[in-house]
Amino acid sequence: MEVEAQTSAAAAAAGDELRSLLSATLSPDKAAVDAATEGLSRIAASSDPRFPISLLAVAAADGDQGTKVAAATYLKNYTRRNIDWGLSSPELYKEFRDRLAQALLQVEPFLLRVLIEVFRQVIEKDFVKENLWPELVPQLKQVIQSSNIISPGQHPEWNTINALTVLQSVVRPFQYFLNPKVAKEPVPPQLEQIASEILVPLQVTFHHIADKVLLSHDETNLEYEQLLLITSKCMYFTVRSYMPSRVKQILPSFCKDMFRILESLDFNSQYEDRATTRLKTAKRCLIILCTLVTRHRKHADDQMAHIVNSATRISSQSIHLHKLGPLSDRIISLSFDVISRVLETGPGWRLVSPHFSSLLDSAIFPALALNEKDITEWEDDTDEYMRKNLPCELDDISGWAEDLFTARKSGINLLGVIALSKGPPVVSAASKRKKGDKSKGKGERSSIGELLVIPFLSKFPIPPQGEDVSSKAVQNYFGVLMAFGGLQDFLTEKKDLTNTIIRNRILPLYSLDPCSPYLISAANWIIGQLALCLPEAMSTNIYHSLMKALTMEDFDELSCYPVRASASGAIAELIENGYAPPDWLVLLQVVMKRISVEDENESTLLFQLLGTIIESGQEKVLPHIPEIVSNIANTIMKLLPPVPDPWPQAVERGFAALVSMAQAWESSAPDENKDIEMRVWQSGQFAMAQTFSHVLQKAWLLPVEQMGLSVCSSLPPLSCVNDASILLEFIMRSITSMEETASMKVFELVAIWADIIACWDSWEEMEDQGIFNTIKEAVNFHQNFDSNGFFLKILPSRSENSSQSSVISWVSSFITRAIEAYPSATWRACSCMHTLLHTPNFSHGAEDTRMTLAVSFAQAAFSRFKSVSDSPSGIWKPLILVISSCYICYPDAIEQVLRKYDSNGYAIWASALAQISSSSFNPGLSSESEIKLAVLTLATVIEHLLALSMGGTKLLHDCCVSLMESCIHLKEVQEDGDDGDGAEDLDDDDDDEEEEDTDEDDEDYNQDSDDDDVREETEEEFLQRYAAAAGGESIEIVEDGDIDDETQDIELGSLDEMDVQQVVLSMMKIRPDLIRAQTFPDGLMERMAETFPEYEQLFHVHRQA
């Protein structure tokens, strides 16, 4: 008894201490908060298995709200960091799980929101993945049925809303396929059990509560509304991917209740805030209807007509959009989406076509027309106005489009789907009666765009000159322009109609005086949307109209930024689709004049347009690039923040524009024999390099110098690292003398750049490529101009987390981490490792540094290899070859590295080397440098294996076979390099002939297939496609990066000068028993004798043996 009392007292004291520490984390005193945090960390690190239970006890006990929330939050973070804490004590983990479930039924809403996240982690692991909680569903069923709303008086302590929230967390993981690679994955048994034991009985409750809520006109009962909302969410998670058998049975009754809820909505009410829960329930019901149409049509076919009627009724409320909040707008958006989805199904035409006229007139067009809310938004937040009303993501008009979110976007999408609709894919009765009359065939059917949409839009004329934005004419014409923007796919097939619309309905707007900025911005947007199908004859008129919009000045108090921004985007679309402005210089001058420090948003867009102009204009704009670079650089330097804060977007876009100009200039280099052109080009290159140097000095060096020693440990912001690297590469490539190196401060820039990339951790393929290229250029610069070994000197780091290091070490840090980032980074990092290892300057007085690099590279490469070694893949090649480079340099040290990582590491690597070097490996070694390195390394490995008395092993045999095959392969590659250019012209001629034939075949095929009916995808086909796509994701993740980089010429330094053939054949002469002892594949020795006839006698010995 005494021991128990002592234990109880100790537990109470521990609980008091924990409560005190949690309470202290809420103190306004920072020192007290830090001390409390440290104390909690100490307790958490003590590995006390009861720590989570203690936290839960504090959260669930009586006490002040702050301490309880602190306990719940700490518990959430602790379990997230220590997901396997329960493995050490299964009994305590089960106790914690049961206590957590009990607590969730009773805690207040503010605690429920936090603790439910802890419960989700438990559910994901115990119930979904491992299915180790068989009692959960029966117990939860009992709790829900006995809870305070469903069975008042039985268990008042069990809160129905809490219990349903627990149910929501239980079904939430099943919204996604658990095994998406399986085409017809059965419904998980856990979900079937939930549906049978909980959801089916719950439907009765849902219907009963819906009756109470919908028939009552009294004050809203929030608990009832919450019950409907949470139950709707549970049903959505249940059917989003799967369809449990028992849910099929309750689907009709559940749909009827959803229709009743949707019918109860009052969009004309002034009390949206009070009805928020009802609106959320309605939103969820519409999302469920979208899911039923998209995923479970055969189970919802008998509900299709009701679905269309319900969605159509809601969509007609778009006339109230100007006074509705975001939630109501989203509901109307979803109603449009539901109709779009139905229209894409087989019975869609029959169900929706009777509503086409009313939809267009009373639902879609009111959503597209300009309203007071749009005008206010333009005045208050032009960026938000553009995001909502000039969307750039409407390129794909489809009934399956997702994430449109606003009524206007969804209305535009639905209009596009309707316009393309041609009715059901059946032959008409008239066509059957007149078999010989081909004019009535399928190819002659008119689309609804021609029959209904265009005639409807033609009712609205261009507003008279001088009309105010508040006039109905302007507001309706804005809707017309929005509609045209959604007809992109339809108009692409109707060239004459597109010409008419552009000539008569869009271009005249630019002649109005004054122009309405609302209409002009929409007109610009349409031109951008229709860039692919614009009439060539009108291109010049269109371009001049856009130029007028690009230079439109602000009105008195109205910003015309959306006009200029949309014009900028439309001009970029025109140029990208092949239009050449009549005068590139004028366009450049306009853009340069408008780029300014005052308006960063506008400069951001213009920098993007400038990049497009440079990339597309090429020789037309090249003479002006050095001057443009100077002007842009001046603007960027003014926009750069004075302290190392993250750069504004305008600066980032400016750097991207500078990169496009640098790349365009480098690609324009004339032939060396053209002396005059070369001198002009070099002069421009030098001027640009000087400018880039000034920009990088301002960005990287000056902020720290200006702030003094107090911030000397702060790195510049990690902004535009890739683009800045490309500019630094340009500078280094432009240097021709030590004087230029000093004047442009190249060594200082390289040092800070290396320090920056050593801290880089935002790995992204398109953001990193320039860094790898700059590393190689930096090595070249080191060879040519670093006579004092600056790259190897120890320098102070400006990073707070780094100590002193050298440029080479910082670069090494980047590439050893890059090797783990993503596949193409692995290839590029390995290529850089070869370059660093075999740079000639390293071999003189820097062997320690070189060995350190080799060891770190081998460690990183072998670690990455082990992570992908389960099955052979293309990513093996760069990893094994970079270890080979390290091994060739320092065999003993690298062997130790491999054995330290894995006792059998050396044999694993050698076996993989033999495998990638064999003729059967795909993708095999292909470049001369790759094969040379493999041959030299295999020869060294074989010598080492013989020294270890491993002469009769399979490993030695595999290495010998791969060595022979690689020698043959190397000779073939070298011979192909000598005489492989002669057949290209013949191949090109053949290709041209084949292309002509193919074009004719394509035309015939297109004529035959244009009239084919589009067959609707079945559910089985959808599931197979979904599974194939899911299965392909993992393949793409592994192989994406090695497509472009499959063949690489790697840097071998002095190794490249070795006579590889002599090395191998000398070894065979010295060790004739090596050849005699092996059993080579049939024909291999004969191929060796044919390839190396001067050594035929050596291989003849083996054939005799």
Automatic annotation (TrEMBL):
Residues 975-1020 have a biased composition (Acidic residues). Residues 974-1020 are annotated as: Disordered. PANTHER family: ARM REPEAT SUPERFAMILY PROTEIN, IMPORTIN-7, 8, 11. This is Os11g0695900 protein.
